[in-house]
Write a structure and sequence with these properties.
- The chain has 5 helices and 5 strands; from the N terminus they run E-H-E-H-E-H-E-H-E-H.
- It has about 130 residues and is of the alpha/beta class.
- Strand 3, helix 3 and strand 4 form a beta-alpha-beta unit.
- It is globular.
């Protein structure tokens, strides 16, 4: 079975690296992207199965990324999970209708993140990798 590929995009290095380590430990291929200006092109080129997007980027920029991905026929079906600071979760959930499949709070809880990723990817692999 081919590994699912997840692109992790953000501006909080520690959260991004933690998510990447957790996902790789669970058997996913990850692509970590720090250059937010390159997200849309990177999704087109890499064709990930899922994008984890830190919405704490300057708000307008994050939603421009989501809108651009949804309007492009090559990327419109790629699921996007938004990662937000806990205190902004309600606001982001209300905005999720704009193209997110889910919203996840930061700081990241490893088990919860894996459960959400598996649900979105419909990945029913054994959950033995959870820590």
């Amino acid at each position: 079975m081919e590994k699912k590929r997840i692109m992790v995009v953000g501006g909080h290095w520690e959260s991004q690296m933690m998510a990447t380590c957790v996902l790789e430990g669970a058997g996913y291929d990850t692509i970590t992207l720090f250059d937010r200006r390159a997200v849309v092109q990177a999704v087109r080129d890499c064709r990930p199965d899922l994008v984890l997007l830190d919405l704490a980027l300057p708000k307008l920029k994050a939603w421009q990324i989501v809108r651009s991905l949804r309007q492009d026929s090559r990327t419109q079906d790629v699921p996007i999970i938004g990662i937000v600071p806990s205190e902004e979760r309600g606001e982001a959930a209300a905005m999720a209708r704009g193209g997110l499949v889910d919203v996840f709070p930061r700081p990241i809880d490893n088990r919860s993140l894996l459960r959400r990723v598996r649900r979105v990817l419909k990945d029913d692999r054994e959950q033995r990798h959870e820590q």
